[in-house]
Amino acid sequence: MKKWKEARRMRAWELINRGWKQNQIAETLGVTPGAVSQWIKRARVDGKEALRSRKGGGPKPGLNSEQMRRLSKLLDQGAKAYGFSGDEWTCGRVQKVIKREFGISYSARHAGRILEKIDRQSQQGVTAIGRQTELSMG
Questions:
Q1: If DSSP codes are grouped into helix, strand and coil, which group holds residue 77?
Q2: How many CB atoms lie within 10 A of CB 134?
């Protein structure tokens, strides 16, 4: 979250403590009265520190950078080297490799995104022929 957003929440808290009305604060800061109300409530319940920016609470990326490098090397060997017939990497094949090697489950669609990311990073000839066919098959 941006520091300016945190500063805006802190300013709202400062103004409410100076006796300003929530509507005045909202107008001054260019936000809705509802936003000001939520900030003030949060600060009253959990203290001023609750207005500070927090790190995102979303899921952590499944594959870390080292695992991505390792996966890239596996894919560089070709699909045949990993036991598949034919040497093209498809979303489903990449999905299976990730599950077997790292124990992480991804949808075939997301495995395709990872394959594209590796393609962009390596700029080597890792192919993804059949990607659309596999996606449409589920």
A1: coil
A2: 19
Cα separations (Å) of 136 from 26, 45, 88, 109?
Answer: 49, 50, 17, 10
Tokens of 39: 């900030």
Is this prediction's pTM over 0.70?
Answer: no
The residue type of 86 is G
Residue extents of the structural domains in the chain: 3-51, 65-137
End-to-end CA distance of the chain: 36
Q: Which of 118, 111, 96 is nearest to 62 (CA)?
A: 111
- Residue for token pair 């899921």: 59
Residues ≥6 apart with Cβ < 8 Å to 13: 39, 40, 43, 48, 51
- pLDDT, one tens digit per residue, over 23-51 is 999 999 999 999 999 999 999 999 999 99
50 secondary structure, DSSP code = G
